[in-house]
């Protein structure tokens, strides 16, 4: 490259650049270099680099030797003397370029950067880095949100699949539970219709039909109750309720079923437990469901105990049995609808598994709570219902009011 070719190329560069020989002689400099020195004319060819810098000659020579002997770009620093006598510290980048003829010496291309330019570039670089970091953080946040959405979608899908599976199992159970009494009703109806039967057999047939019809009506009532609860259409006839006669009535209702299995029904009822606000029919349904559940899962010659007691500002109804018990795995789900410990058609105990779900919903509607305990399978279970006591205001007997103008007498 000749000096003329260099100037043609370097004239368009915004940064100061020089073309020098290894001994420091300036062959060409672009206008940006003259502007940096505060000169209004071009640097004359043949001027030495030592004339425009304030650094020691040894430092400049050493830098030029490093540039001449290296095939890589060599970094350094030079302090230039401007036209007004000020020193301008520059960062320089030097590299050897091919000479324009074999006989010509190697030349050094030198690019200069002032601190302001370097600072400006550094600021621009930092800005670009900040923008890049911001974009990276934004992409990472989007990836995290996408991953969270994926996890939530997978959980929602798994939950939906589980609910669909539970509903399928529940529908299968409903079909089985409704078909069983229907088969008995249909069978005995056909016997009575097409065969002559004696009075004893007719009595047995009618009793069987009535029992299965009541069983089917109870299943349908449970389905209607859970449907009303889910849709929020259940209504409570709230009034002051004394729990003692209510629990005694529920005990008498389930006593035939307990006697059929030789199960002892024990009750410890506190007559001073206090009234509660609620629907008497729904409260009796809560107790009846718990007692029926206890009797169903308690084997022959077992025991079911009912307690009513007042604890501070609430009343507790406790139903304990010596029955099948509840496993630790199933205990957290015992009050969920569509859930049964044994969902198979060949399970040992009938029913839809809605009784305890209805209990929890009705207790919640009364502002109470219910929880279950069990040491494990085969060790019985304890169900505790807590209901808030009704606030009773003391009655204040006020004296008979007399108008002050009459003093108790009517003026004639």
Q: Please state roughly what percent of the residues sit in beta strands, choosing from under 5%, 5-15%, 15-25%, 25-35%, 35-45% or over 45%.
A: 15-25%
Helical proportion, percent range: 40-55%
Could you tell me the radius of gyration in angstroms? 49 Å
N-C termini distance = 140 Å
Order of helices and strands: HEEHHEEEHHEHEEHEEHEE
Overall average pLDDT: 81
Could you walk me through the main structural features you see in this protein, from its secondary elements to its overall organization?
This protein is of the alpha+beta class and 412 residues long. The strands form three sheets. A five-stranded antiparallel beta sheet has the order 2-1-5-4-3. A hairpin with a 7-residue loop joins β11 and β12. α4 packs antiparallel against α5. The chain is rod-shaped, with a radius of gyration of 49 Å.
Characteristics:
alpha+beta; 412 residues; 8 helices; five-stranded mixed sheet; 12 strands; disordered C terminus
Quick summary:
With 412 residues, the chain is of the alpha+beta class.
Please describe the topology of this protein.
Layout lengths: L2 H8 L6 E5 L4 E4 L1 H7 L19 H13 L4 E8 L5 E11 L9 E8 H80 L4 H33 L7 E3 L1 H18 L3 E6 L6 E3 L1 H17 L6 E9 L2 E8 L33 H11 L3 E5 L7 E8 L24
Parallel strand pairs: 7-9
Antiparallel strand pairs: 1-2, 1-5, 3-4, 4-5, 6-8, 9-10, 10-12, 11-12
Helix pairs in contact: 4-5, 5-8, 6-7, 7-8
